[in-house]
């Protein structure tokens, strides 16, 4: 169920018209600046802004959400770090409780709905990623209620196009991809994948803060689900150029270059990620350097070692990165097929089992036939 909880986990946090607890436009500019700094991994400067906002907006949900967002990006993927995950969830819970105070006196307040949605969405994702399914269901249910409210307020806050677009897309993608869950999904309002993509595109172009995460999700959708490589590259390149210090965005950009066969531009990014301490980033570097060695340089020995190294990193760190495993198994399959080694079929079958995209599934099937 992790994909569905991620749908509900709306990473948008603040918007240009946000006025919770009567904060002034001056504070809103600080909020926007702080969020931009967080996305670009400039955490010393973003912490200074959060500290100032805590003093100015006492009792507001905003500072705790900013703390959660900052912690999320500092320790990404945070679900693998127990101490930081607990602190992250504490910030979100406190932010939610403060949002509820506003909603108690003003149930239709769009800004408070927005903040409550963000906190519960984040919680749903974090519980799902850390294997706490019961708690994930509770947070997802609460977030779902706010998603429904937000979908009726698109004219009030452009940022709601992100949450509504994500819901519309994944509400249909998930049961189509995993039919076993269709009965469960019948309890939720219907979606529309095409409309969802259109709404995400609108958020990417017009939203003040949500445009960042709209581009982030569009990159994934175009890379892994709809498989429109050139559109994925457009979104990912824009993210990388705007936030060059954000190595998660770098990893997405690297993958988009690889599926567009732009290996020369991809190589320095792969080298950069290979040098990182984080195994989450290193796996991207090793994996896509393996693709470069295989397809650009035809150095199959180096490629095989790097594919195996990526798989080992994934297993040793419990990252559960099925899509990246599929890339590695597909590469090993091609290498062993060149050697006329019957082991190739085993790797292609593994790739087929793990693959997300139709393109990769079809490639694996073609090799197996």
Describe this structure in words.
The protein has 369 residues and is an all-alpha fold. The chain has helices spanning 2-8, 25-39, 43-56, 62-74, 82-105, 110-129, 133-151, 160-177, 182-185, 193-206, 210-225, 229-242, 247-259, 263-274, 279-295, 300-316, 322-338, 343-354, 358-368. It has two domains: 2-226, Serine Threonine Protein Phosphatase 5, Tetratricopeptide repeat (Alpha Horseshoe), CATH 1.25.40; 273-368, Serine Threonine Protein Phosphatase 5, Tetratricopeptide repeat (Alpha Horseshoe). The longest helix is centred in the first third of the chain and has 24 residues, at 82-105. The protein is globular.
Chart the SSEs and their pairings:
Blueprint: H1 2-8, H2 25-39, H3 43-56, H4 62-74, H5 82-105, H6 110-129, H7 133-151, H8 160-177, H9 182-185, H10 193-206, H11 210-225, H12 229-242, H13 247-259, H14 263-274, H15 279-295, H16 300-316, H17 322-338, H18 343-354, H19 358-368
Compact description:
The protein has 369 residues and is mainly alpha-helical.
Dominant shape: globular
CATH-defined architecture of the largest domain: Alpha Horseshoe
Main β-sheet description: none
By secondary-structure content and strand pairing, the structural class works out as: mainly alpha
The number of helical segments is: 19
Count of β-strands: 0
- Any low-confidence stretches, pLDDT <50, length ≥5? 1-24
């Amino acid at each position: 169920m992790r994909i569905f909880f991620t749908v509900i986990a709306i990473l948008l946090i603040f918007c240009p018209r946000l006025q919770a607890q009567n904060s002034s436009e001056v504070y809103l500019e600080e909020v926007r600046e702080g969020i931009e700094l967080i996305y670009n991994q400039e955490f010393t400067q973003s912490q200074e802004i959060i500290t100032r906002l805590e003093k100015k907006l006492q009792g507001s949900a905003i500072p705790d959400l900013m703390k959660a967002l900052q912690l999320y990006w500092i320790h990404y993927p945070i679900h693998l770090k127990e101490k930081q995950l607990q602190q992250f969830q504490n910030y979100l819970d406190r932010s939610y409780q403060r949002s509820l105070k506003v909603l108690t006196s003003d149930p239709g307040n769009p800004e408070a709905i927005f903040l409550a949605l963000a906190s519960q969405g984040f919680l749903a994702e974090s519980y799902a990623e850390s294997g706490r399914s019961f708690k994930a269901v509770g947070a997802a249910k609460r977030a779902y209620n706010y998603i429904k409210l937000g979908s009726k307020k698109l004219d009030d806050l452009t940022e709601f196009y992100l949450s509504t677009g994500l819901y519309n897309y994944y509400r249909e993608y998930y049961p189509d991809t995993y039919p076993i869950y269709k009965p469960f999904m019948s309890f939720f309002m219907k979606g529309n994948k095409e409309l969802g993509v259109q709404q995400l595109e609108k958020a990417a172009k017009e939203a003040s803060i949500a445009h960042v995460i709209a581009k982030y999700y569009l990159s994934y959708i175009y890379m892994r689900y709809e498989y429109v490589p050139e559109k994925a590259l457009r979104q990912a390149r824009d993210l990388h150029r705007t936030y060059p210090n954000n190595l998660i965005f770098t990893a997405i950009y690297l993958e988009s270059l690889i599926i567009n066969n732009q290996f020369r531009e991809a190589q320095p990014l792969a080298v950069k990620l290979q040098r990182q301490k984080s195994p989450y980033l290193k796996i991207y570097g090793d994996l896509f350097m393996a693709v470069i060695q295989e397809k650009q340089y035809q150095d199959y020995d180096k490629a095989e070692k790097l594919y195996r190294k990526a798989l080992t990193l994934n297993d040793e760190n419990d990252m559960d990165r099925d899509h990246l495993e599929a890339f590695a198994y597909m590469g090993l399959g091609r290498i062993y097929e060149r050697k006329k080694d019957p082991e190739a079929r085993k790797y292609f079958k593994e790739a087929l089992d793990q693959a997300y995209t139709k393109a990769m599934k079809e490639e694996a099937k073609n090799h197996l036939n």
